[in-house]
Specification:
This protein is an alpha/beta fold. It folds into 4 domains: 2-77, GMP Synthetase, Chain A, domain 3, CATH 3.30.300.180; 104-270, P-loop containing nucleotide triphosphate hydrolases (Rossmann fold); 276-340, Helicase, Ruva Protein, domain 3; 352-442, DnaA protein, C-terminal DNA-binding domain (Chromosomal Replication Initiator Protein Dnaa, Chain: A), CATH 1.10.1750.10. It is built from 20 helices and 9 strands. The chain has helices spanning 2-13, 18-25, 45-54, 56-67, 124-134, 154-168, 179-191, 195-204, 221-236, 257-263, 276-289, 296-305, 310-327, 333-340, 352-363, 367-370, 377-393, 398-404, 409-425, 428-442; strands at residues 29-33, 37-42, 72-77, 104-105, 143-147, 174-178, 208-212, 240-245, 267-270. The strands form 2 sheets. Strands 4-6-7-8-5-9 form a 6-stranded parallel sheet, with helices on both faces. A 3-stranded mixed sheet has the order 1-2-3. Strand 1 (29-33) and strand 2 (37-42) form a beta hairpin. It is globular and about 70 Å long. The relative contact order is 0.07.
Length: 445
């Protein structure tokens, strides 16, 4: 049966993207089999959850085909050390409710874990890459550059990697700091004649470096040179490095080419603003984590109004709950509006009709063509984009959106799914949507 499992993995490999296969299927290990099931080990809980929800049906299908009979697949998390067994290391347990302290640098926020991170179409690739790096698949991902504007979750993902590594591999030395911290420490070491100790700490005593806000290094020539040497040493020793910034390496001004090259040498993953459905899920999870009872109507209202970033989104819910507690009144739309109106920038009301006009202008077609029954690609793609934007920026239900485009509910849902799939793949459509989103949110329509 072990040989059959290898064949199953090869078959699955041919039916899915190579990057996804390397992240999720390749690490799976055959353990044993019985009359009705094959037991497979996953490297960690997150891997088990992902495989179970996304790839198990495909695995079962190929297993049935190659084994010639129905077999179940039981996923388990591979043991990572035990008190029993000769030569195995004892794993240090983490005290509940206590924030994990990295071996050096700032504290990791105890709520910035993979479990508390809400995955959506805007960040699923960044999440997968971060999880892969945290799982210690060295040959696949030596470094990761998390790119987003402020408040999108890059610090959350960076610290989640630190939490996971310290929990799964407690002997590893994790350093979490900002580029400003690194600069100040280096300057201080020169003043105090301890530069050799500073270098030894990062060159010899660091296994994982979580370095935030690398754009802060702009113009700091001496720090850039020292950091370049540090990164060279860490990468040569197969250590893990996670950068975060609001600028691409190529867009950071006054950065020397050596450091720019090292920052760009790994995987660069962008985190986009969350869509409406993801914002709702973020608020639900945030409310549940704080044990707040917030009506769904209020959560959807906040998600529809606060669209700039995750930080603003959570702040809105905190404001609503706090005001309700202080005044001793019920949380309703009026109370929510009194908080939210002070947080949002004035903007035009985006309607389905305004979206239609903007899309038609962009694609140089008429509104009549947009809502026609024509299946010409020149009309189908703009129609799908318009439906997607209508769902994202209006409070209209799918049925109403479909009717507005002379389509059924199911067709509107299919259009939204098609656009979301294409956004993940990048390309010209993503550029078009990003431009239209920018125009809508800036009110320049």
């Amino acid at each position: 049966m072990k040989q059959v499992w290898f064949k199953v993995k090869e078959a699955v490999k041919s039916r899915m993207p190579e990057a996804s296969y390397r992240l999720w299927i390749e690490p799976l290990e055959y353990m044993e089999s019985g009359d009705s099931a094959v037991i497979v080990a996953c490297p960690n809980f997150y891997s088990k959850k992902r495989v179970s929800s996304h790839y198990l049906a495909l695995i079962l299908s190929e297993l049935k085909r190659l084994a010639g009979r129905d077999l179940n697949v039981e996923l388990m998390v591979k043991p990572n050390g035990s008190d029993n067994g000769k030569g195995r290391k004892h794993r240090q347990m983490v005290l509940p409710g206590v924030a994990v302290q990295p071996h050096y640098g700032r504290f990791l926020r105890k709520d910035f874990t993979f479990e508390q991170f809400v995955v959506g179409s805007n960040n699923d690739f960044a999440y997968s890459a971060a999880l892969s790096l945290a799982a210690h698949r060295r040959r696949q991902l030596p470094s990761l550059f998390l790119l987003s504007r402020t408040g999108m979750g890059k610090s959350h993902l960076s610290q989640a990697i630190g939490h996971h590594i310290l929990t799964q591999y407690p002997n590893e030395r994790v350093y979490y700091l900002t580029a400003e911290d690194f600069t100040q420490e280096m300057v201080s070491s020169y003043k105090n004649n301890t530069i050799n100790a500073f270098k030894d700490k990062y060159h010899k005593n660091c296994d994982v470096l979580l370095l935030e806000d690398v754009h802060y290094l702009s113009g700091k020539d001496r720090t850039q040179i020292e950091l370049s040497h540090t990164l060279d040493r860490l990468l040569n020793d197969n250590k893990k490095i996670i950068f975060s910034s609001c600028c691409k390496p190529g867009e950071i001004p006054r950065l020397n080419e050596n450091l720019r090259s090292r920052l760009a040498s790994g995987l660069i993953s962008n985190i986009d603003p969350p869509d409406f459905r993801t914002r709702v899920r973020i608020l639900k999870k945030f409310a549940a984590a704080n044990q707040w009872s917030i009506p769904l109507q209020i959560i959807e209202y906040v998600a529809g109004e606060l669209t700039e970033d995750v930080r603003q989104l959570k702040s809105g819910l905190v404001g609503i709950y706090t005001k309700s507690s202080l005044l001793g009144c019920q949380i309703d739309i009026n109370l929510a509006d009194s908080v939210i109106k002070n947080m949002v920038r004035p903007r035009k009301t985006i309607t389905i009709e305004s979206i239609k006009k903007l899309v038609c202008k962009h694609y140089n077609i008429s509104v009549k063509d947009l809502v026609s029954r024509s299946r010409k690609q020149a009309f189908v793609r703009p129609r799908q984009v318009a439906i997607y934007l209508a769902r994202r920026y209006t409070d209209q239900p799918l049925q109403a959106i479909g009717r507005s485009f002379n389509r059924y509910h199911a067709t509107a849902l299919h259009a939204i799914g098609t656009v979301e799939k294409n956004l993940k793949q990048g390309g010209q459509l993503k550029q078009h949507v990003e431009y239209l989103v920018e125009v809508l949110e800036s009110g320049r329509w």
